[in-house]
Design brief:
Structural class: alpha/beta
Number of domains: 4
Helix content: 25-40%
Largest sheet: 6 strands, mixed
Number of helices: 27
Radius of gyration: 30 Å
Number of strands: 28
């Protein structure tokens, strides 16, 4: 029986061959995550699923627990009335998979409930389906979180002393609040007012706390919970935890041990020897070669092989695979001795070369800038200048003409400074004369133009830039709202000139929201440029301002005056981002060519964002990912480029204790190989990094002392000394 498990906002569905006994029966389980963003209708979430998944014999909507007795019936009514679901699923039976609570039966684990308009003919019995669905959901959640680790080039040393070829990193799983709630749903039958819950590792605590909150809502009782602080090597390690729970429960209490993974069985045996007779044990997973005894209920069998260790401490895999030790306290992987080094490769440096050259020609880059919407952006692109550039304008028109889509009947343009340019581009590229330009800052279609949209078969939204996609999402809802009221289908296409998110994954997720029945993404863009997120503290020049603001009053004399001058400069946008304006405006050695210094700085921040995303995606999840500071120091000799990288990467990405000696040698040789002497502004950027603890501070102090230091370097010298004193005091 194939079971397809889909979760809203996670693009890739999980497909499992879950039960051979029902080989011809296909179930789709869709978790619309209705306990998150409850205002978004289930149908709007469901429309984004690939159409081929609708070839199912049963579609189940996963619902959370709600102690309101009318919740399930209200949800059932909403599903039956939802036009999108009725249209997409037609005659496919649909049902609910959700836990329940009643005064009579208390808390119950998820059950299957078909909507009243469907019969149960041909559908397997619930008693047969529920264990399968429980197993599928747990495996899907583990897969979504990347918690199941089966490396081909590594294996693991467990706290029990055994080695294994795979490992379940539960710390990854419980970082997802929805996953925690779904797993706790399957444990509800063990939650009673007289029960204490014991977890086998710290990562189980979020699941136990979720059960504690549920019990408080259902029974008005705060049941006690406890987790083992380390892997038990003797019974007292488990016994102390059991007695702690029983002290809080009273003489009639019972304890349930919840194992993340049953492997060697030691913790379970210790528990059974000490716990009261009516206590229980549940394992979320067990390894294939260690089947739990019948007094342990396990949800999921994992393809993980345990390996015996010889007298030399090695197993059969040790010869060919790297060994990672699992910590006996938090069950986390201890990092490998040497991290994976991530570098600024040529393909990253040159990826958007053409874009940045055009951006420089039209002088559209602004740094440390408050945009017309009041958002402060580390890098702002003036799209009016960009769209007015002949070559860029022709590129946009060509991209619009090359869209494999029908000619639009209506074009909608959001209102802003570039609206008129987009109107003309849209008319020239598509031949459509019906262009609606919305009022500035509005995402609603004016009443006077609604009929134009309703009468159209093809509608295009045309915008200048995509950052978070909120404007496009609201306009999409507005168009679909008119479509629903008119009981007709409107084909919608969205095109933006520049997509400039902070992560490529944001674009991938957003495009999923514009997938319709033809299984094609209807969101298009000409150029994609990753730039620091405008939300939060991502502007590197704001970071400098905050840092100087914290330390300026602790500096003395001329150094304090220098800091205050720099703070005054940082109150507004900067044409020359790093210096005080006494250098030539152009950067001759930029990896994209001869461009203004602010353009070189912006292009460097963009490459840094690509590297940061690459690190976060983790090509090798078994090692730390670090930026190679040695390469940056050797490779880049323009202050804006060196500074752009050093300022973009946090200390956690740049500093590695194992390479302090190598970085120190790099700094001691810095400037000697070129024969050009030391560039003071290059040293300034190195000093800024050292002041933030990203580079070895004593080595940088010696580098500064080799320079003919200007006022800025002297100020930074004192800042580093203050920073060293603070760390030594701490």
């Amino acid at each position: 029986m194939p079971v397809t498990y889909i979760r809203h906002a996670i693009p890739a569905p999980q497909v499992f061959d879950a039960a051979p006994d029902f080989s011809d029966f296909h179930i789709v389980v869709f978790d619309a995550v209705i306990d998150s963003m409850p205002s978004l209708p289930v149908g709007d979430r469901f429309r984004r699923i690939d159409r081929e998944l609708f070839d199912a014999d049963l579609v189940l909507f996963r619902a959370p627990l709600d102690t309101n007795p009318d919740f399930i019936s209200e949800l059932e009514g909403g599903l039956r009335k939802d036009r999108i679901i009725r249209t997409l699923l037609r005659d496919i039976p649909i049902g609910l998979l959700s836990p329940t609570f009643s005064e009579r039966n208390g808390l119950e684990t998820p059950s299957l409930r078909l909507l009243r308009s469907y019969s149960t003919a041909g559908i397997p019995q619930s008693s047969d389906l529920l264990p399968v669905l429980r197993r599928v959901e747990l495996e899907a959640l583990l897969s979504f979180s990347g918690a199941i680790l089966r490396p081909s080039n590594a294996h693991f040393a467990l706290p029990s002393g055994l080695h294994c070829d795979g490992f379940v990193a539960f710390d990854r799983l419980v970082g997802d609040s929805i996953a925690v709630q779904r797993i706790s749903d399957w444990l509800l039958s063990e939650v009673r007012p007289d029960t204490g819950l014991l977890g086998d590792q710290r990562a189980m605590l979020p699941i136990l706390l979720a059960l504690q909150v549920t019990a408080a809502l259902a029974y008005g009782v705060k049941i006690p919970v406890h987790v083992l602080q380390e892997y038990p090597v003797e019974p007292t390690g488990v016994g102390d935890a059991i007695y702690d729970l029983l002290d809080r429960l009273g003489p009639d209490g019972r304890v349930v041990l919840m194992l993340s993974l049953y492997s060697s069985g030691r913790t379970a045996r210790f528990f059974r020897e000490i716990a009261p007779p009516d206590s229980g044990i549940i394992a979320l997973c067990h390894t294939k070669d260690e089947i739990p005894p019948d007094w342990i209920e396990s949800f999921l069998e994992l393809e993980v092989r345990r390996l015996s260790v010889g007298g030399d401490g090695k197993c059969e895999l040790c010869r060919d695979r790297e060994l990672f030790t699992i910590d006996h306290q938090d069950f986390a992987r201890l990092p490998a001795r040497n991290p994976n080094w991530v570098t600024a490769r040529r393909e990253l440096l040159e990826k958007n070369k053409e874009f940045w050259l055009i951006a420089d020609e039209c002088d559209c880059v602004r740094l440390h800038f408050d945009d017309p919407n009041g958002r402060h952006q580390g890098v702002y692109l003036d799209t009016v200048r960009l769209l007015s550039h002949p070559a860029f304008r022709e590129n946009i028109i060509s991209a619009l003409k090359n869209l494999d889509r029908p000619r639009p009947d209506v074009i909608i343009v959001p209102g802003h400074r570039a609206s008129e340019l987009l109107r003309e581009i849209g008319k020239e590229a598509t031949g459509c004369d019906r262009v609606i330009v919305l009022p500035n800052g509005k995402s609603e279609i004016p009443d006077a133009h609604k009929q134009l949209v309703v009468d159209a078969e093809q509608v295009m939204i045309l915008d200048d830039v995509l950052i978070t996609g909120s404007t496009l999402t609201m306009l999409r809802r507005a168009v679909y709202g008119l479509e629903r009221k008119a009981h007709k289908h409107v084909a919608l296409e969205v095109f933006v000139a520049i997509a400039r998110p902070s992560r490529h994954s944001d674009i991938k997720y957003l495009r999923q929201q514009f997938v319709r029945g033809d299984n094609k993404a209807h969101l298009h863009y000409y150029a994609e440029v990753l730039l620091p997120d405008y939300r939060g503290d991502s502007c590197v020049l704001c970071d400098e301002r905050r840092f100087l603001g914290m330390y300026a009053q602790r500096l003395k004399g001329r150094n304090q005056a220098c800091a205050l001058r720099r703070l005054r400069l940082l109150r507004s946008t900067l044409e020359s981002p790093l210096s005080n304006g006494d250098r030539p405006d152009y950067c001759e050695g930029a990896f994209i060519g001869r461009v203004r210094r602010k353009t070189a700085f912006a292009a460097t921040l963009s490459v840094a964002q690509m590297i940061i995303e690459e690190i976060h995606n983790g090509a090798d999840i078994f090692k730390e990912q670090k930026v190679d500071a040695r390469e940056i120091l050797r490779k880049f000799f323009d202050p804006e480029i060196l500074g752009g990288f050093l300022r973009s990467f946090g200390r956690n990405l740049l500093f590695y204790a194992g390479h302090v000696e190598e970085i120190t040698r790099e700094l001691e040789a810095f400037g000697l190989e070129t024969g050009r002497g030391l560039d003071v502004e290059l040293v300034q950027e190195i000093a800024w990094a050292a002041a933030h603890g990203k580079l070895p501070q004593h080595a940088v102090l010696r580098l500064i002392e080799r320079c003919e230091a200007n006022a800025m370097l002297k100020m930074l010298h004192e800042l580093i000394i203050i920073n060293i004193a603070e760390e030594e005091h701490a």
